[in-house]
């Protein structure tokens, strides 16, 4: 592991034991040569893993005897740069306790210096321009170390020994505060003070963080947060909030020990927490109607200085226009954020690689990944069998990530974003180039989604390499297998919004029997029409109409007593025509769309503002009503060669009836979740595969994941769901690689 103080540790350990030799970084890991008495050597090997630095991970330790070289002393040798497998890129780490203490110590020479760091903390991947991880290969290369900093850097006994971004007020980066047009108004501490004053005044400030700009605003002032929403064109999608400390988080949200330690970890991700009712810590506009809140703690010295002075929570949302990648420098910031931020606080340490905040939640005491980025990605998964010819995968359309595989390594990029924006497509290309160069991997083959219109498919085609298209839901299932390092047979239960099926229709409620190479679609949800196709994704009321049409056919138009779902009479006439003539009405087996339909039928959400809003509304309504639930009727019937058919119409008939009789929406939502879990069990029992995988975007829904998992386990199945990789399309690239490996190895 690089950048975690491992070499200094080895140096201290060896010299402490009176051993001679050297240590160095190489692209294969850390190499150590030690000479001494046999007993001391044995004790060194024994102690090495036991007293390692907190962030060091020893994946494997191999030792062998070599002839004695009679070396005097113990030295840290320069890193060995040879092309090969850099399995672990150094990841950005939140400010450590010792540095935070120094930051607020008036007697320290780095008192209030916003770029303080050490071998245990600070920027890594975000400043990395090459490998191995040495100062020359970071954006700190342009800053020459002053004498005191150089002394620390070269002293094996110092906690800044080989801290690559080591810096101080004399020799390191400097803050700047500027107007929205980019003119610099103040530098250093004066810049910080202006930013603090502006934030206190309710202004919106763009702040340069580790991997890009955030937009900050006082989270308590409704008017200020609404101003941010208007300028960012973001109506209801929740904002994340940075709190000064854990104590303040605990006044606003439920906070378990696991959640607290995740927030305070070196990865310092955004953690989704349950809000306390009636809490006024943040205003309504931060996360309208959401019972949860995305929370994080300060993770750079600059954040600590800001939040310490402010003493109140601030909205900290990605500095970008919706769907576009983060701004990473002042020029991009002025171009993109000029109309959003009132001013900016930046600095002259360049960001080499953009990286978003990671997002997780805790389920049954264990973290579940929603977005793998800063602190976690690039992710590394060890492969059991070596990949002989390097391979790449370009992921999906939304929540895009890319992946590489070479040797025994599967490497997954940080979150890139939604490829419907041109700037994100550029960012994807950048990420591919960066990763290939940092890992020194030249892909010889590429895998992508089967969907002909995904931008990621275009990216793959342009590479000019042997290409294979991977079915969307098979990739989901295999991403789950990859993270649990499963092989062989399993039943993949993959539920999501949309994915291109092998028959050209939209899949999304799939039961795939996975074997060593390939899959069989053994069951799926009954397909229903989506009037308007793509438009239905943003309009759950269209899914509701499609579902009603699947139940009653043309009769549904005569009997829209439940609700007309906000449609005007004219709109309804057009939709009726679409449905009866089957024009622009693709059929889908999507469980995500079924969630949409129920959310609209129960009046929770007819038109959504952001992806997943309707499903979240249904989940939250259900979570508040989980007691004495009943399972709705459903039928599983063998249909055709495409396997079993999960007919949900009896369930939906009853839901429509209950809505008409004013049953509590929460109860209906809860029963719906329970019924889906029982559908999974019923299919699994007919298929008879013991190992079950749960994947796809629907399983980001904590309630659905927990209910389904529980029901299957009770029925005696062995169930695997996601922790490390996201269940959503962020996991696709990893699954595409796993699917493509045997395909390519045959050719
Ligand atoms: Zn530190
Ligand atoms: Zn210095
Ligand atoms: Fe998907």
Query: Poorly predicted ranges (pLDDT <50, ≥5 residues)?
Result: none
Binned, the helix content reads 25-40%
Query: What would you report as the Rg, rounded to the nearest angstrom?
Result: 27 Å
> In DSSP terms, counting alpha (H) and pi (I) runs of 4 or more, how many helices?
23
Name the ligand types.
zinc ion, fe (iii) ion
As laid out across the biggest beta sheet, the strand order is: 5-4-12-6-7-11-8-10-9-13-14
> Which term fits the overall shape?
globular
Query: What percent strand?
Result: 15-25%
Q: How many β-strands, per DSSP? A: 27
- Any guess at the CATH architecture of the largest domain? 2-Layer Sandwich
Q: Round the mean pLDDT to the nearest integer and report it.
A: 93
CATH topology group of the largest domain:
Nucleotidyltransferase, domain 5
How far apart lie the N and C ends?
Answer: 35 Å
Structural class: alpha/beta
Short description:
The chain has 747 residues and is an alpha/beta fold.
Describe this structure in words.
- This protein is of the alpha/beta class.
- It has four domains: 1-171, DHBP synthase; 175-347, DHBP synthase (Alpha-Beta Complex); 377-486 and 730-745, Nucleotidyltransferase, domain 5 (2-Layer Sandwich); 523-723, ATPase, nucleotide binding domain (Nucleotidyltransferase, domain 5, 2-Layer Sandwich).
- Helices cover 33% and strands 21% of the residues.
- The protein has 23 helices and 27 strands.
- An eleven-stranded mixed sheet has the order 5-4-12-6-7-11-8-10-9-13-14, with helices on both faces.
- Helix 5 (188-200) crosses helix 9 (301-310).
- The longest helix has 23 residues, at 665-687.
- It starts with 5 loop residues before the first helix and ends with a helix.
- The structure holds zinc ion (2 copies) and fe (iii) ion.
- Fe (iii) ion (FE) binds at residues 472, 476, 496, 499, 696-697, 729.
